[in-house]
Amino acid sequence: MNIRLIMIVVSYVLFAAILISIPFRKKFSLKKAGKLNYKITGPSSIYFAGIYIISLAVISIMWIRNFGDIMNFILCGCGILACELVTRSFSLKNVYGLYENGLIYDGVYISYDDIIAFPVLILPEEEQKNYDSRTLVLITKSKGQKSFTLISEEEYATVIGKIFEIKPSLKQLIEK
Asked: Which comes out higher in pLDDT, residue 9 or 106?
């Protein structure tokens, strides 16, 4: 059997397995998160559909042309990696928000207890202006630094306020 054919078939199977995992990822994160307190607006579904189509095209192009075993392997890996990365965000797209136990945004669940710093918020006001006013930057114990770009400055202000309202102990991280 042709190595290229095996790579293509395995890639399609992995692609399908990743897509099948979407409801399980969502259920797992929601179970940890608890009750919804504030819904955050997420990106358009067109963004996700576009990346799925491109990642599938990267794999499928090997039906048309053989790039050699190493390049075929790299193309399959890129297609599967793109599918995995977009699925992380897409699986939780409709449940982005602040929950009683943590926040879900950009395909990531972060527990409030895991947050150790708000690096941009502790900077002086004039230095904060050097950063995008829609980007929430968190430092966590388990995931390191995470940045989330929200839809608007107003939503950013609301999210920050709600985080401190839900978990008042986090406010001490920005007080000097």
From this structure: 9
Q: What is the DSSP string of 112-166?
A: GGGEEE-TTTTS-HHHHTTS-TTEEEEEETTTEEEEEE-S-HHHHHHHHHHHHHH
Which residue in this structure is represented by tokens 């940890």? Answer: 32
pLDDT tens figures, 10-27? 999 999 999 999 999 888
Does residue 103 contact residue 163 with C-beta atoms inside 8 Å? yes
Residue type, 161: G
Report the candidate in 56, 148, 69, 150 with the shortest Cα–Cα distance to residue 107: 148
CB 41 within 8 A of CB 155: yes
Q: Give CA separation, 98 vs 16, 28, 35, 148, in Å.
A: 30, 16, 9, 13
pTM of the model: 0.77
